[in-house]
Design goal:
Number of strands: 15
Strand order of the largest sheet: 3-2-1-4-5-7-12
Order of helices and strands: HEHEHHEHEHHEEHEEHEEEHEEHEEHH
CATH superfamily of the domain at 3-192 and 238-263 and 304-323: NAD(P)-binding Rossmann-like Domain
CATH topology of the domain at 3-192 and 238-263 and 304-323: Rossmann fold
Largest sheet: 7 strands, parallel
Mean pLDDT: 93
Oligomer: single chain
Length: 342
């Protein structure tokens, strides 16, 4: 039995109380569904600025009534310190995913991005400290590696941030470290690489390439590649992001205080390769999808050229082992994509 399977069995036997910020978002709603299926008690916080009520409804329809009764929802914004304190009462673990997670938005609206991603995170840390929360697991980002020259990203070596969004995530890591040293608050940051899966909004905060391209293909619209298509990314399926959060919250092997871990598949894929894979998988489900070629345009400001995760640290301390390749994840998510992205 894997460490993750053993953890799930232990949680079923001894349920905990969890707070998920950004619970109506892509990652947050998937975390909610997984925890409720394990009969956990969950408090959710969301302002619906980027999160969707439809995501919560999908979770409700996918579980039984008794599990849904274990969920308590607060509508509010993490920039409100009072809301954060209320949501943190009696919580064992926090999974912090409320953020404005968009490179273009951070460049266009720096103050708004800073308020949500930094001030909001600081409010959560303060509330967690005062409420004696056991551990805060928070979403960082591979964007913090910036212009680092190495292809394979290692936690201890980063470059200069290339966007305001990247800067806010790096500031969060600094704050978490200071709270660990000064207040003894235990936290773990997860540097997500390129996450994909059901409930990912092609137009929302996680306006990621996979749902955008699938939407374009389904609607018979052009697929645009920013740059020459040789840029590489590390794509990780949402089920493995859920795994990493639960392991991070519960592990006893992680170093005390604050630490950060890369979370990805550990494999790099060129954007041209991704396009070909998406077209092949989608056409296997719908042969009417045309054999179109992508349209190339200028690189987007703030984008990192190459990005692949070294996940050896997460394997060692969190016992995190991805279970789905890109193609396997696409196969699992394709029915949802076809129902919701046309």
């Amino acid at each position: 039995m894997s460490a993750y399977e053993e953890l799930k069995e232990n949680l079923k036997r001894a349920p905990k109380k969890w707070l998920i910020t950004g619970v109506a978002g892509f990652i947050g709603s998937n975390l909610l569904e997984a925890l409720l299926k394990l009969d956990q008690h969950v408090v959710g916080l969301d302002s619906f600025v980027t999160g969707k009520k439809q995501n919560l409804e999908e979770v409700r329809l996918g579980i039984n009534q008794n599990q849904w009764k274990r969920f308590q929802f607060f509508e509010g914004d993490i920039v409100d310190e009072t809301v954060c304190r209320k949501a943190c009462q009696g919580i064992d673990f926090i999974l912090h995913h409320a953020a404005l997670a968009s490179v273009p938005l951070s460049i266009g609206e720096p103050l708004r991005c800073h308020s949500s991603n930094v001030t909001g995170f600081l409010n959560i840390l303060l509330a967690a400290r005062d409420e004696k929360v056991q551990r805060v697991v928070y979403a960082s980002s591979s964007a913090v590696y910036g212009d680092g020259a190495e292809l394979q990203k290692v936690e201890e070596r980063i470059g200069e941030p290339l966007s305001l969004y990247a800067a806010t995530k790096y500031i969060d890591e600094i704050y978490a470290g200071v709270f660990a040293r000064v207040f003894g608050l235990d936290s773990i940051g997860l540097r997500y690489f390129n996450v994909f899966g059901p409930r990912q909004d092609p137009e929302g905060a996680y306006a990621a390439v996979i749902p955008k391209w699938i939407t374009a293909m389904l609607r018979r619209q052009p697929v645009y590649i920013n740059g020459d298509g040789k840029s590489t990314r590390d794509f990780c399926f949402i089920e493995d992001i859920v795994q990493s959060n639960l392991l991070a919250a519960s592990t006893q092997k992680a170093r005390e205080g604050n630490d950060v871990y890369n979370i990805g598949l550990g494999q790099n894929t060129r954007l041209t390769e991704l396009f070909a894979l998406l077209k092949r998988v989608l056409r296997a489900h719908d042969s009417s999808v045309p054999e179109e070629e992508p349209v190339y345009r200028d690189f987007r400001p703030g984008d990192v050229r190459h990005s692949v995760a070294d996940i050896s640290k997460a394997q060692r301390f969190l016992q995190f082992y991805p279970t789905q390749t890109i193609e396997q994840g696409l196969q699992l998510a394709m029915d949802w994509y076809r129902r919701n992205l046309t």
